[in-house]
Amino acid sequence: MAPSNRNASIKAKTHFFKNLSLATVLEGSGETASWTGSKIMATIGPSIHDTDVLASLLEAGMVAGRVDLTWGPLDFHRNSLHNLSEAMRRTRRLCSTVIDTMGRELMIRGQWQVNDQGYPWVLGRNEVQAGQSITITTRPEVVATESILPIMYPKFTKMAQRGDTIYIARYLVSGAESSSLYLEVTDVSEFDVVCVAKNSAVLEGLLCVFHAERSQGNGLSNTQNELPLLSDWDKQCIAALGSEFEIDFLNLSYTRCAEDVREARRFLHGLGMTNTKLLAKIETRQALLNFQGILSEADGIVISRGNLGLDCDPEKMALVQKTLIQACNLVGKPVLITRVVDTMVNTPRPTRAEATDVANAVLDGVDGILLGAETLRGKYPLDAVRTVASICRAAEAVFDHSNHYEYLMDAAFEAMAQAVARGEDDEGDDDIATQMVANGELRDVAGGSALAGSSQRASFTTAVKTMAKFSMVASSNNLASLTKDPSTGMITSGSTGGLYNNSVLRGTPYLSKLESIASSAVRAADKVRASLIVVYTHTGQTAELVAKYRPPMPILTLVVPHLVNDGLKWQLEGRSYARQCLVSRGLLPFLATPNSGEALLEDAVKHALRLGLVKARDQVVVVQRVHEDFCVKIVAVADNGTGIERDEEGTLSKSSSLKHIPSYVA
């Protein structure tokens, strides 16, 4: 079906601060480091390879350890994961294990030697002056010099043409260091690409090549390299490490389209790694053009801002980042960003721009921060983790959770209202929701009166049911050239002028009723000013849906192990799901014993008391499965601060059960 010319736009989410007093902003927070909602993923390299350092990082706030297959031998990465496992055992803290692929990376061939940790360092140091002629050659016998750089991809000359911009820099640099070199192509022959240096630079370390997209607007004019999504090296390492360790996430470098994600998933399933989730890295304009499909297939998104910033106009990067985060928030999938405190590779304190960048990302709704060179080869890895965690906590304290919640509800209602107006809504059991909108019946979740001040808003239940429809709309397949309509203030994209194409509304399913329970829990927690939400889950899905609404209180996630049958044997699953919850903002996962009922809830509240998350008389909202139903209930912490408040007979004191619905396995 050809795309519809009718387009819907939605207002971008804005930040609101309830208190504009600078005196309040500047006073100490008195915070403890027991909980940070935003997540920190650290890249394991020579700087943090040691078990003691990894243990310190876990205590400082690191929740995911990433090994990068782009550089380093298999034994080094194997030892890294072994040391991470030992650090987890020593600190009694969960940590996700992440493998980042090399994929379609283009690299300059150089000479290297291995240090005492088993990590290879590239030898040589070339100083390049602005205006100097540099030749990138595909000839395999050439050794790198100051004027000739041998590239490892034999078809590079087929990609380049006169006038192209080529960027060469040390792996994991921000673009501002002295090792960043911008080249302009002046001539192309069978084996050589002749360039002129646009700036002076010092080239050292592992050098990577990025061929910037030459086109503007919505198209792609560059010839893309023909390298596979997963190199032979990637496959070898994934198979080897996956057989020895429980790998929670695979970061897919240079993801271009939805089929890339499907290909990676088939490969993992072939290895028996069915529990490993996929995080697609958005690094190029091509990924932006195909973002709808990528977001639909992937389990989460990593905005790789280093390469993406080279492929997009500088003035568009803020819009691109905010829109990607907004789309991920709407569908409830975790999103992380890279390249935030690059200067902390060499300094113990970030620049004001970097600190502001981290805080703004948290206010935009990002789930986590991925640290690269800061922890891989940085001089201050522990300071970097502590600093980012502190900035995140400060931003979370002023995040307008209520506005975010209302934004999701309003977005869902707008999508449903537009679908109803065009008569495009699906038939079936959920058609009652359509009729409620059409008839103007705005009912609360409990069947009561309309929400206060919401004469233009759909009912709570109706709104959450439409979120899936809007999610498909928000996952725009064209984010490459974002603009703002001056007459409406709407963010739009593409030649049609609309970021969100209504044609994708057709045929998309309603959200499951499980999300209705999740959003009800967040609303209940806000109404009673709860200090904690406790969620029982098997796979983490229920907790992730609760986290989507960004409640201000921690979400203590009790991952209850369950038996599964792979066709050959029964096994107990749960640990991997608990670790995977660590990348979703606001979740505090714990692997529960198979115990059930009041004893498990009592243990959870006592643990929250020990962590300082709740105190006596605080309210706790619980999302729990009762027989074949899910329910939301509210309990109170006992006056003496020792557990849950109980009556004289020893049973739970009066609790409020808000909603029961048919069970959907979490």
Automatic annotation (TrEMBL):
- Superkingdom, taxonomy of origin: Eukaryota
Q: Residues in domain Pyruvate kinase C-terminal? A: 515-627
SUPFAM superfamilies the record matches: Phosphoenolpyruvate/pyruvate domain (SSF51621), PK beta-barrel domain-like (SSF50800), PK C-terminal domain-like (SSF52935)
Q: Which residues form the Pyruvate kinase barrel domain?
A: 38-385
The enzyme's E.C. designation: 2.7.1.40
User: Which pathway does the UniProt entry assign to this protein?
Assistant: Carbohydrate degradation; glycolysis; pyruvate from D-glyceraldehyde 3-phosphate: step 5/5
- Name the cofactor(s) required for activity, per the record: K(+)
GO molecular function annotations of the record: ATP binding; kinase activity; magnesium ion binding; potassium ion binding; pyruvate kinase activity
Q: What class of enzyme is it?
A: transferase
Alphabetically list the UniProt keywords: ATP-binding, Glycolysis, Kinase, Magnesium, Metal-binding, Nucleotide-binding, Pyruvate, Transferase
| Reaction(s) catalysed (UniProt annotation) | pyruvate + ATP = phosphoenolpyruvate + ADP + H(+)
Q: Which InterPro entries match?
A: Pyr_Knase, Pyrv/PenolPyrv_kinase-like_dom, Pyrv_kinase-like_dom_sf, Pyrv_Knase-like_insert_dom_sf, Pyrv_Knase_brl, Pyrv_Knase_C, Pyrv_Knase_C_sf, Pyrv_Knase_insert_dom_sf
Entry similarity comment = Belongs to the pyruvate kinase family.
Q: What is this protein called?
A: Pyruvate kinase
